[in-house]
Automatic annotation (TrEMBL):
InterPro entries: DDAH-like. This is Amidinotransferase. One of its GO terms (molecular function) is dimethylargininase activity. The keyword Iron-sulfur does not apply. Gene3D superfamilies: L-arginine/glycine Amidinotransferase, Chain A (3.75.10.10). SUPFAM superfamilies: Pentein.
């Protein structure tokens, strides 16, 4: 299949109603180190995380989106990061298989909840961390990351399960260990991304597919500005990503800033907390 770029300036930004699955951070804490952002010696404030999460969920509802909830389980402090649990397309869910044992028990819990919500869940053969590394670009294709958390072989498996072409991209900076920390899909024709997080061949692929991509700087990448959630017009992103918000507005998007700084201590942001459910 030949994939061609579409120039976004010819299109109008239009929001579409989305459905999300989220998990309250009732047991959120940084208790171990599985990415460069996690430092157990730095205190976390679970109550503050809960307040920030409530604002995030209220923001989604205010923007007209449906929000479903999965109940958190004790001893799974990262379960709040719902995006890592699966990737969904057309009522099918390709489940996660976590790289680290600390998160392994999240996978069956999310698969059970997705089944309750009416999705056909396909358990994976290979290690993958859901929408952390699989970014669905409308009905066109899926951008898929590898290098730190997701086995490259999972890309072909996801393609077979979900029925969309999968384009493999290599992550090279351990700070941006999931693709959703380095790329934000804004609509079917537009992304924002941080080039240094990706290998040179991967940057070339993105330049071909998205010649008008928004390029984030170091400062915005470091506050997880690209870990954003877009409905095609509104882009929910960390309040600290100042330049990226201005770039989004200049390109016709509406930035919606939220403070999720407590989750950054575990290497997460708005997108990490949000699994999109595509029926």
């Amino acid at each position: 299949m030949t994939l061609t770029a579409v120039r976004p300036e010819t299109l109008q930004r239009t929001p579409t109603s989305r459905r999300y699955l989220v998990c309250p951070p009732r047991y959120f804490a940084v208790q171990y180190t599985i990415n460069p952002w996690m430092h157990p010696e730095v205190p976390t404030d679970t109550d503050r995380a809960c307040r920030q999460w409530q604002v995030l969920v209220a923001t989604y509802r205010r923007l007209g989106h449906q929000v479903d909830v999965i109940e958190p389980l004790p001893d799974l402090p990262d379960m709040v990061f719902a995006a890592n649990a699966a990737v969904t397309v057309a009522g099918r869910a390709y489940g996660a298989k976590f790289r680290f044992p600390q998160r392994a028990a999240e996978a069956p819990a999310y698969q059970a909840r997705l089944t309750e919500l009416g999705f056909t869940v396909i358990p994976p053969t290979y290690v993958n961390e859901g929408e952390g590394d699989f970014l669905v670009v409308g009905r066109r294709f899926i951008l898929a990351g590898h290098g730190f958390r997701t086995d490259h072989r999972a890309h072909r498996e996801a393609e077979n399960v979900l029925g969309l072409p999968v384009i493999s991209l290599e992550l090279v900076d351990p700070r941006y260990y999931h693709l959703d920390t380095a790329i934000a899909v804004l609509d079917e024709t537009t992304i924002a991304y941080y080039p240094p997080a990706l290998s040179r061949p991967s940057r070339a692929i993105l330049a071909e597919l998205f010649p008008d991509a928004i390029v984030a700087d170091d400062a915005d990448a470091e506050v997880f500005g690209l870990n954003a959630v877009s409905d095609g017009y509104h882009v929910v992103l960390p309040v600290q990503a100042h330049r990226l918000a201005r770039q989004l507005a200049a390109r016709g998007f509406q930035p919606v800033s939220v403070d999720v700084s407590e989750f950054r201590k575990a290497g997460g942001g708005p997108k990490c907390c949000t699994l999109e459910l595509r029926a």
